[in-house]
Design a protein that fits this description.
Layout: H1 3-9, H2 14-22, H3 26-158, H4 164-179
Helix pairs in contact: 3-4
Length: 180
Amino acid sequence: MSPLLIFAAADAGPIGQIAKTFGANVPALIANTISFVLVALVLKKWAIGPIQATLEERRKTIALGLSNAAQAKSELAGAQQKSQELLVATGLQTTRIIEEARVAAAKLTEVEIQRAVTAAADIIAKAKQANEAELNRMRLELRKEVGRLVVAASVQVTGKMLTAEDRQRLAQETQQQFSA
């Protein structure tokens, strides 16, 4: 027999006395207990069960989201580290390229300076040659002019006309004196 039936049958005795004192109706109490158990089972099956499943699913979703966030955080840290390394490598490469450009510019400047020096030396040499040629031409002209002046002065001093042979001889003598 069930304990409830024993409780219901025991109208006499201290339990029965307490039940009467508090106005407990055993059949109503049994019906209410059965009703409560049925409602609890129905609620567990159709209300609490789905809510617990939904809460468990949410817990899993939150855990997955947290693990994804942690993974994304670690990937972000790795990406930042790689970008920092790339920036350092790019900085080093840029510095190297700038230094190479400076060296190339210095070499090019040196080559251009050498070309300018060579061109200036050529110009100076050509100017000296032209100057010497002009000086030689002027000396020759001066000799001829001095020879002509000597002949003219001789004609006026001597009062006679010189022959072509005399003029040439005087011109040669004058040129020899200027050459020496």
